[in-house]
Amino acid sequence: MTLTDKKTRAQRFREIRERLGISQEAYADALGVPGGRQRIYKLEVGRADIPEPVFRLALMMGQHGLPNQIH
Predict the structure, then answer these.
(1) I want to staple 47 with a disulfide (CB 3.0 to 4.6 A). Which of 14, 15, 42, 61 is the partner?
(2) Pick among 1.10.10, 3.40.50, 1.10.12, 1.10.260: CATH of 6-64
(3) pLDDT (tens digit, 9 = 90+) per residue, 2-60?
(4) Contacts of residue 54, Cβ cutoff 8 Å, sequence gap at least 6
């Protein structure tokens, strides 16, 4: 699976959040994304481009879990 197209990246971004079992609001906080739940929704459905640093941080959280203070 290539993570370069917008739809695939958006799907992966959402899958990570769902696997972590956190809300869109908590995901925004963990990733440092301003705009909270609404912004995460737009990123997850592909209405906005996911900035590369945010996507990489999400991938890292998907592999290693959340920082302790976010749980």
Answers:
(1) 42
(2) 1.10.260
(3) 556 888 999 999 999 999 999 999 999 999 999 999 999 999 999 999 999 999 999 99
(4) 31, 32, 33, 43
In the DSSP assignment, the letter for residue 45 is T
Q: Report the C-alpha gap between 35 and 7 in whole angstroms.
A: 21
Q: Look up the pTM and report it.
A: 0.86
State the amino acid at position 36 in one-letter form: G
d(CA 32, CA 70): 12
The position carrying tokens 């459905």 is 45
Contact 44, 10 (CB under 8 A): yes
